[in-house]
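Ticket 4471: requesting a sanity check on a complex prediction with guanosine-5'-monophosphate. Repro inputs:
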Amino acid sequence: MKLKGAILILSGPSGAGKSSLYKQLAQAFPNHYFSISSTTRQKREGEIHGVHYNFISKESFEEGIAKGEFLEWAKVHDNYYGTSKAQVIKALEEDKLVVFDIDVQGQANLKKAFPRHTTSVFVTTPNKSILQERLGSRGSDGDSVIQKRLENAFDEVRSLENYDYLIINDDLEDSTSKLLCIARSAFCKTSLYEMQSFLQNWEK
Ligand code: ADP
Ligand code: 5GP
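Returned structure tokens:
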């Protein structure tokens, strides 16, 4: 009668605060699964293989593409990023909130694959100079990497109209409370219900 699980996508320019918001969400939603992407980018200080990402070589990634192991994949800032199929399907079957931190292209592909399950949230800073400050203060990327991310940011922000919700992440506490409301609503969407069987059951 009701489809199992729900999908919550977080997208937005690098440095907007997606990981910070996810950390808060994770505490409030123990019954969630964070989709661990595979990537060919360099590991940042503090990142753990199998927790933040599966850090793999370009050759292994391309082998995964050829074998059809990815639900979606994209080249972002010159590196491959992708979502493995098996774990996501399993988490949905377990009726979990499946959370993704993926780019704009990934969001479009996931929406196509799971139109009824998906709720999407675009996260951004109030403006570009705050984004620049945050990328600098995170201290995890060199100047050329930051420059590349800033150059791509405007194109990413331009895509926000394709999302269900927008969070302008100024104050983290306020943004967190918005995200928690959205996550709860993700499980109440009418699209998660099989209408015919719902109505038959309701009439009994
Ligand atoms: P993303 O995952 O989108 O790349 P992060 O969550 O890593 O972004 O945030 C980038 C930097 O900005 C981090 O140093 C983080 O602590 C900081 N940050 C996140 N949200 C806020 C906020 N609302 N106000 C100030 N700093 C923030
Ligand atoms: P970062 O290198 O800052 O962790 O991520 C860079 C970008 O890649 C972000 O926009 C992030 O959302 C995106 N990304 C991370 N994992 C995936 C994935 O599996 N698929 C896609 N399409 N994008 C991803």
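Notes from triage: Helices lie at 18-28, 58-66, 85-93, 104-113, 128-138, 143-158, 172-186, 195-203. Leaving this open until the requester confirms.
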